[in-house]
Write a structure and sequence with these properties.
Elements lengths: L5 E7 L3 H12 L7 E7 L6 H6 L7 E5 L5 H11 L4 E5 L3 E3 L3 H10 L4 E11 L12 H4 L12 E2 L11 E5 H6 L18 H11 L3 E13 L7 H21 L6 H19 L5 H26 L3
Parallel strand pairs: 1-2, 1-4, 2-3, 6-9
Antiparallel strand pairs: 4-8, 5-9, 6-8, 7-9
Amino acid sequence: MTNMQISAVICTHNRDNYLGAAIDSLLGQDFAGEFEVIVVDNGSSDRTREVTEERASNPRLKYVFEPTLGLSVARNIGAKEAKSEILAYLDDDAVASVGWLQVLYDAYQHNSQLAIAGGKVTLLWPPNIEPPSWLSAGLAGNLGAYDLGDSVVYIEKPGLTPRGLNYSIRRQFLEKIGGFDPQLGRVGKNLLSNEELLMTELALKQGWQVAYLPTALVAHNVAPERINRSWFLNRGWWQGISECYREQLAGKAGIAQFGRGGERFIRGLYKSLRYAFKDPAESFDNFVYSYGQIGYLNAVVQGLLFKK
């Protein structure tokens, strides 16, 4: 390694309309040391290269093209290209606060057992658009919102793990577990997820710590096409599939998954009906959850039928 203290990585796929602001927020960081910014172009067909090259005069910036689609693939490429021990991942449609890298770096310096850290995420809504009345606080999390309060929290439940759009990891831990698992994480248009949850599970199992840092603040743009019920249903479906895959990777696959998925489906549907009139947002939240369990059960069937 060089004297590079932290590496910021943006993995991007066809988001040239947001990418420039994300890069600029990193290049403008108030950081008392050496840092770099790596853009991993994951098979984009838009102006991603041009947007990056417009800022090529900044010596901190590096562009890498990776044709194999997959967020986990791109993250691993970013780690390979990075020169530091601390890797900070920012989504291509997010904007980091000016002290983001400093907060993350300091946390790792003060805690040798810290493997993963991320911060608070607020939402940036499109101009003249307000959050819809049917959007619950829980579903806002599907848009990236993440807020565990104003104090540092050490995560003990994997479900509370930091959001991937505002995420950092220690290289030592990442290399020990073999990198991000390409079976999880977004690939093209599909919405596979849960890769961060799996990483937290592995970290805690191995005695590492995972932290929420409220002052490592990032704002996430809400794309207009996501502000409709069908997007959340699709997101819920893929969440269910992701959960099935995560269980398979953790050695928890099998017939018992039918019981877990069936129970969650019934519970979500019951709550959806229960809140239908008194709290429409909570009702829709539970309906999305229940719908996601159909995706989960479908993946369970596929896993059993095509099990090697």
